[in-house]
Specification:
Largest interface: A-B, 28 and 29 residues
CATH superfamily of chain B: Hypothetical Protein Pfu-838710-001
Structural class of chain B: alpha+beta
CATH topology of chain B: Hypothetical Protein Pfu-838710-001
Number of strands of chain A: 24
Number of strands of chain B: 12
Radius of gyration of chain A: 24 Å
Number of helices of chain B: 10
Oligomer: heterodimer
Strand content of chain A: 15-25%
Strand order of the largest sheet of chain B: 1-6-5-4-3-9-10-11
Structural class of chain A: alpha+beta
Number of helices of chain A: 16
Strand content of chain B: 35-45%
Largest sheet of chain B: 8 strands, antiparallel, barrel
Shape of chain B: globular
CATH architecture of chain B: Beta Barrel
Distance between the termini of chain B: 42 Å
Radius of gyration of chain B: 20 Å
Helix content of chain A: 25-40%
Number of domains of chain B: 1
Shape of chain A: globular
Chain lengths: 579, 303
Amino acid sequence: MKNEIKDRYQAYLKKMKSAVLLLFLFVKILAPYNSLAQSEPLVPIERGSLLLNQQPQVLDSFVNNGRINLKYVRTIGHFLTNNDITVYKKTAISGRSKATIRHIKQLIAKQEEGFQENLLVNDETREIFYELYLFNESLKQKSLANAQTKMSFNDKIKMEVHSIKSKRGFRYKNSITDHEAKNINKSNLQEDPKDSPFWHQSIKQVPLDKRFAQLARSKKIKAKKEMVVLFDKSSLSGSAPKINVLDLDLDNKWSLKWGDEVHTDVVGSHIFAALGYDVDHPYFYEENKLTLIFDELKEIKNKEELKIKIKEIYNIDLEPFITTYGTVTIQMTKELADLQPYVGKQYVRFKKCVLEARPDRVKRMGSFLPGLLSNEDRRELRGALLAHQFIGNWDTREQNTLLTTVHMGNYKYRMSAVFSDLGASFGVVQGIFPPDFKVGLVNEFPWEVASCAGGKVKLNSSINSILPPYQQATYQDLLWMAKKIGELDGPMLRNMINKAKWPEPIAELYFHKLASRRASILNAFDLTDPHPIPFDKNLTIKVDGEYVVKNGKLLIDIDKDKNPESFLSKKGRLTNYGH
Amino acid sequence: MLLAQGTEEQRKYVIKDEKALLNFINSSGQLEGLSLYNHSKFTYFDLYLDTPDFDLYKNKLSLRFRKRVFNDSLVTYGLQLKSEMETVSSVRMEIEEAQLDFYRVKTDQGWIELPKILDIIFSQIQNNKIDISSKEMQYALSSIQKWIQLNAESTISPFQKIAFLKLKGLEREKIATIRPVLFGSEKRIRSHIYIDPAKTIIELRSMPMNSLALSAVPDFFKKNNTFNWILETSVDSAVFYSLFKTNKTEVEIFEFEVENKYFLHEKGTEIMNLFEKNLKSNFQMENLMDSKYRQSIKKFLVP
């Protein structure tokens, strides 16, 4: 019987391989790297509305006798735009970009006119109050966060407490809360929120799995199949090794990362984008598909110095991730024309890495303030809890949310809230003795994430920060997100997983696990699946006669040499991936 | 030396031998390993502002609305605050409100964009019909003054800077009294100064290539990617008209400017020194420190 299943699975796999080959040819020939054909008209993304049913009290300061309180508006405007205001609460202010300043000035100019017209405060002025307040608080948050370079002991304890609490605490009874009864039309409890800087409804012209590419195009992100980037500066943030690099146009920047998040960040971001959120834009690069060029005038001048710096900051040996290095030759430029101006410069190439866009069109400020300005009341933010659960994202801290200004061209801007750094997902383990952290371990990624018992839906994925919207999330909010997850069909899921370029058996195992997790969510919320995706919890894959995946478990550390972070070892970034 | 945001390293010269200089520029000549490429003709229209007591002038500052016309097509508007040079090679502060399109003035005819009001003033120069007392001109000048009064405490960068500097006579309430005092236009012939590895001296050939964002690189260097852009020059020929009572009706200015564009500023300064040495010996130039505004006001205020 077992052999019969195995044979059937082998036949299925063979069919799948043919289908994947056909798809690959289509992608190679017809579709560009960003997968939303550049010739297709770009569907513009509008800002949407920030207004809530009940205006938060903190916005009252913007109003004086029903009219614009210009003095207050200007105070906020100066804080956000005046580069001579350099300190907030004894910390240096950082994050005012030219584009953000210009955007804020446009908002202030509208308020100045409204004041001169002696206008009564209306929805249009209120939209600006919301936006100014969010930018103001976000700049303060960023300045204070930048001043705190190391995580405090209290923060570490808080993370542990939230991790434990979240594992046990996410239980939801099918009921309507008093708040919902008061604020939402009972006849349509599952109504989508309005488009807002926090979330956008899907549109017919853009399939869900292409929303990542649509966002990328709107931000003018141009990730090529083979990239040449220039070293800019080292990075001190986060625990995964990374550096800041420049695009060859020197206008756009990227963050170049190595380690265990290189696959997970890509899929996590695609899935969040498919569900309606704005995200970071990470792109996976396979062996030797990215060339990092060094400039002798910069802080790091060659591969050796890069290794030393990464070791110094992250205590990680980069050597196992490196393939070739040396001096760019004329021969190399024949294979890759982008290298032409860099003949004679030092370069290094890698076994694998991820390049995350920092486009000139997008200016980052601080967090999007999930706990301020009644943001915890927003269904789109409450529902995001289930999206995190779906991909098993553990690192849900506020610092992984971003408020951004997107330049839409012609000096028109829109505010957008971004779910950033979604890579601590798809199977996360933490070590205590010694302290360690590893993500993307497929065997640690449970087959199910939601269940229903005793009339309560239970979620089982732990998160390190139960932000106010997640704390406030209700059954109805999660049901709403469950429906969104249900809209993802099999081909979409597969397309998004393919972007991560995991070795084939691992990608296949993740596909089955995500399909299973999706089904568990729909079952728990008693939803009829609009696009049932078959999955096999006993998935078994043999390569060259050897079991690679057996009964739904990865057995072999595939291509260990090409994947130095390992897909099986639990040794993570704090123990140098066991090297 | 690091150049802070909102500063520029610039030198100015009085030209003694105008003809020789223009010949040199028009022929895209060479000076001691440095090549020159004359690339554009710009026309600038300026409206200078000051308090009734010329407190900006007294504090060695100038504030102007500037309309830039690039090669008879692209037009931009800005409001610029600049400091005077303290020495012949010092760095000038420059704070610009670079986007004026979304600022509007409330008039009897409704809300009108600030650039449209400025155009009423500048059209007199374009049409060569200077009539300060004309109804249109007075309407435009009072509209500008009104905009300044209402926005003096708003988020306009030059106003923010003036308030921050806390200078005598330029207290916050005095900013609202700033009004137009001069207007004029300027023809500017701009040239790139660069190193052509095929036509330079050994010392300059080894200089690292300038490193700038692609959006800041002129087309000439995109097409000729072995040329190393170091400096930018302009020959300026300007005429200004007074908007206050004075014996003179207009002032003419002819000067040469050089600006450091090199990413390693200290190295760029060295090249500026070399270039200056050659300019002085070939075209009998002399250093100049006063801005066009300062030169004009000095001339207008002479009894």
